[in-house]
Design goal:
- It comes from Candidatus Heimdallarchaeum endolithica.
- This is HAD-IIA family hydrolase.
- GO terms for molecular function: phosphatase activity.
- Keywords: Hydrolase.
- One of its GO terms (cellular component) is cytoplasm.
- The chain is of the alpha/beta class and 283 residues long.
- It has 2 domains: 127 residues, Rossmann fold (3-Layer(aba) Sandwich); 123 residues, 3-Layer(aba) Sandwich (Rossmann fold), CATH 3.40.50.1000.
- 34% of the residues lie in helices and 19% in strands.
- It contains 10 helices and 15 strands.
- It has a 6-stranded parallel beta sheet, sandwiched between helices. A 5-stranded parallel beta sheet has the order 7-6-8-9-12, with helices on both faces. The chain has a two-stranded antiparallel ribbon with strand order 2-3.
- α4 runs parallel beside α5.
- It is elongated, with a radius of gyration of 19 Å.
- The relative contact order is 0.17.
Length: 283
C-alpha cells in the first residue's frame, strides 16, 4: 500500500464498498470494517454498499449491517437484485418472469410490480412440465442455494424459446464464505447457457457500469471523487476503473495478488491492502 495514497484517502468524498469478502463473509464481520466506516461517517463521507449478491432484499442488508454495528439506510445499499428489478420494470414492464434465484430476488421483482411465476420453493417432486412454460417473458438468474433439478429443467425448456429474454443479476461464478467458496450467480448462468444452447442477453451487476453509475448519481459525486473497495478483481476493480472510479483491492477475498496478471494493467487498483484494518491504522 502506498503511504502517499493512504495520506490522500480522506480527500475522497464517496466510498463504495463491496459486501461479501470486504465488509463481511456471510455472518462474520471482517477486521476493520466497522472501524473504517465509523471514521468515514465521522468525517461526513458518503458511504455506499454495492453488492452483486442477489439473495437478500435491501432491507435485509440494512438489518444485516446493523447487526454488525454498522448503521446505513436503505438508500446506501445497491444490490444486483434491486437493480435488476428496476431495470426490468423500466425496460420490460408487465413481464412474466421465471426466476433461478432466492426469495430476496423474487421479493425485489415483485416490489416493482413484476409477476414472478414461480414465487414458491419448487421441489424435485414436481413435474418439470407441470408449469406454463410458454407464458414466460424473461428468465432471471441469481445465486440459488436451493437450486433443484426441476428448476433447471423448467428454465432450460423456457429458454428454448428465443423470444424469451435471458437476464443475469451478476456473473460471479463463485461466492466467498468463511469456510471456502461455493457456486455463485455466474455458475447458474454457465449451466443454463450450456443447457439451452444460447448466451445470456444482459447482466446487471458489477463489472457492468449500471451499479457504479447508480451509486455515483445517488451520491451526487464525480468519478474522481470516489473510491471503490473490492475483493474481486474482475468485477469490483475492473468495473470501477472502467468508469473512472479509483479502486482499492482488499486481499483475503475472491481474488489474490497472483490474479493481477489476468487483468490489463490499465485496470490495476490504485491501492492494495491486506485488510480494512490496515487502512484504519494508516488513518
Amino acid at each position: 500500500m502506498s503511504s502517499d495514497f493512504s495520506d490522500k484517502l480522506l480527500q475522497f468524498e464517496a466510498f463504495f464498498f463491496d459486501g461479501d469478502g470486504v465488509l463481511y463473509k456471510e455472518n462474520t464481520i471482517l477486521p476493520g470494517a466497522k472501524e473504517l466506516l465509523t471514521i468515514l461517517e465521522e468525517k461526513k463521507k458518503k458511504i455506499f454498499v454495492l453488492t452483486n449478491n442477489s439473495t437478500k432484499t435491501r432491507e435485509e442488508y440494512v438489518e444485516k449491517l446493523r447487526n454488525f454495528g454498522i448503521n446505513v439506510n436503505i438508500n446506501q445499499i445497491l444490490t444486483s437484485a434491486y437493480l435488476t428489478a428496476k431495470y426490468v420494470s423500466e425496460t420490460f414492464p408487465r413481464s412474466k418472469i421465471y426466476v433461478i434465484g432466492e426469495q430476496g430476488l423474487k421479493q425485489e421483482l415483485e416490489r416493482f410490480n413484476l409477476e414472478v411465476l414461480n414465487n414458491w420453493e419448487e421441489k424435485d417432486s414436481e413435474d418439470p412440465f407441470d408449469f406454463e412454460l410458454r407464458s414466460v417473458d424473461i428468465v432471471i438468474t441469481g445465486m440459488d442455494r436451493k437450486l433443484t433439478y426441476v428448476k433447471l429443467a423448467r428454465a432450460m425448456n423456457i429458454l428454448k424459446n428465443k423470444q424469451v429474454r435471458f437476464i443475469g443479476t451478476n456473473a460471479d461464478v463463485t461466492f466467498p464464505t468463511p469456510f471456502g467458496f461455493i457456486p455463485g450467480g455466474g455458475a447458474m448462468i454457465d449451466i443454463l447457457e450450456k443447457l439451452s444452447n444460447r448466451k445470456i442477453d444482459t447482466i446487471i451487476g458489477k463489472p457492468k457500469p449500471l451499479m457504479f453509475n447508480e451509486a455515483l448519481k445517488s451520491a451526487s459525486v464525480k468519478n474522481n471523487e470516489t473510491i471503490m473497495f473490492g475483493d474481486r478483481l474482475e468485477t469490483d476493480i475492473v468495473g470501477a476503473k472502467n468508469v473512472g472510479i479509483n479502486a482499492c483491492f482488499v486481499l483475503g477475498g475472491a481474488s489474490s495478488l497472483s490474479d493481477l496478471e489476468k487483468i490489463a494493467k490499465t485496470f490495476y487498483p490504485d491501492i492494495i491492502t491486506n485488510s480494512l484494518s490496515d487502512l484504519v491504522h494508516s488513518l
